[in-house]
């Protein structure tokens, strides 16, 4: 099943392309998209095609921050019907819960998780894909949109501590520093934002409960009777928890509020099994982490849930026909020729 997202996710693609003197038509056609599709925000497009489009556009234009450039001028209203409900939430915590609950109406390829520890809140965010496709630009776009959402809701009270990316830093950090205005961490083990936990519960005096109720009633009418697929929810949980060593079927079932047998049954009803979802997530994340030369192979093994590096090496060979070290060396050789 192809993961679909609102075409609004590509808001500003044409604008940024024009600024970089890039012809978007052939790039769109290459991934099966068209200019006409981008002019209808509620139209659904392939998340994988979108990720390839952004990576190809960054490569052709030579702009390593193509995705972040698209996020810089995004508005809260670009999130569609959910934006009104977000605007009238009492706190950032409530707004994040709205994002989690209604994310299938906006972007089913993005997983978000909130955790708090030692006076800090970590808003982790991951971009999912059905096939191993580079997601650097998609991650930066999603991170920029999330950051700007927090800033729009809290205004001058927004006090981010740091922004984290699993990929390496671009050669030019000017845009990152201007947009985020806080400590930047590249080569991190997660993508996300760290802020004081006090930011989460800071009240918003302009929030209107009546408007929030009206917006929620409207959103309920858009959801349909079935709601989001359990497959999407479990895939997102795996991507978020696997690097933390907490992606066992028991733990994922607990996160979803069900027992293991119920989770297995619901997956079976959709034609899937948990072990295959874990394997596919590991394959995707393995290539992402190995593409980051800052990660030692032992660290990659840990992030993928292997207790010893030799187990990771055997698994990787069974999946890709070569060792992780050989794959990394081959990729570096290809990159150096570009």
TrEMBL record:
Coiled coil: none annotated. GO terms for molecular function: DNA-binding transcription factor activity; transcription cis-regulatory region binding. Signal peptide: none annotated. Keywords: DNA-binding, Transcription, Transcription regulation. The keyword Transcription applies. InterPro entries: AraC-type_N (IPR032687), Homeodomain-like_sf (IPR009057), HTH_AraC (IPR018060). Residues 248-330 form the HTH araC/xylS-type domain. GO terms for cellular component: cytosol. This is AraC family transcriptional regulator. It comes from Pseudomonas cavernicola. The lineage of its organism: Bacteria, Pseudomonadati, Pseudomonadota, Gammaproteobacteria, Pseudomonadales.
């Amino acid at each position: 099943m192809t993961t679909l997202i609102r075409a609004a996710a590509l808001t500003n693609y044409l604008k940024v392309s024009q600024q970089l003197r890039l012809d978007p038509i052939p790039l769109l056609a290459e991934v099966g998209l068209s200019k006409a599709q981008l002019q209808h925000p509620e139209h659904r497009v392939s998340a994988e095609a979108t990720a390839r489009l952004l990576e190809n556009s960054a490569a052709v234009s030579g702009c390593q921050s193509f995705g972040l450039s698209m996020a810089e001028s995004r508005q809260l209203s670009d999130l569609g019907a959910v934006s009104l409900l977000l605007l009238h939430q009492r706190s950032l915590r409530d707004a994040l819960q709205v994002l989690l609950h209604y994310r299938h109406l906006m972007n089913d390829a993005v997983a978000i998780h909130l955790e708090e520890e030692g006076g800090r809140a970590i808003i982790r965010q991951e971009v999912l894909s059905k096939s191993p496709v580079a997601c650097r630009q998609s991650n930066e776009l999603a991170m920029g949109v999330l950051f700007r959402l927090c800033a729009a809701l809290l205004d001058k009270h927004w006090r981010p501590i740091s922004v984290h990316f699993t990929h390496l830093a671009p050669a030019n950090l000017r845009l990152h520093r201007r947009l985020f205005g806080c400590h930047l961490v590249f080569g991190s083990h997660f993508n996300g934002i760290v802020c004081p936990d006090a930011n989460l519960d800071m009240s918003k005096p302009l929030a209107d409960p009546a408007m929030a109720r009206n917006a929620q009633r409207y959103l309920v009418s858009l959801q349909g009777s079935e709601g989001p697929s359990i497959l999407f929810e479990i895939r997102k949980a795996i991507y978020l928890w696997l690097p933390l060593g907490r992606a066992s079927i028991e733990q994922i079932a607990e996160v979803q509020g069900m027992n293991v047998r119920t989770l297995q049954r619901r997956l079976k009803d959709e034609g899937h099994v948990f072990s295959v979802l874990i394997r596919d997530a590991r394959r995707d994340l393995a290539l992402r982490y190995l593409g980051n030369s800052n990660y030692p192979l032992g660290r990659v093994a840990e992030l993928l849930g292997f207790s010893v590096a030799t187990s990771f090496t055997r698994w990787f060979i069974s999946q890709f026909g070569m060792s992780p070290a050989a794959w990394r060396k081959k990729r570096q050789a290809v990159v150096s020729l570009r």
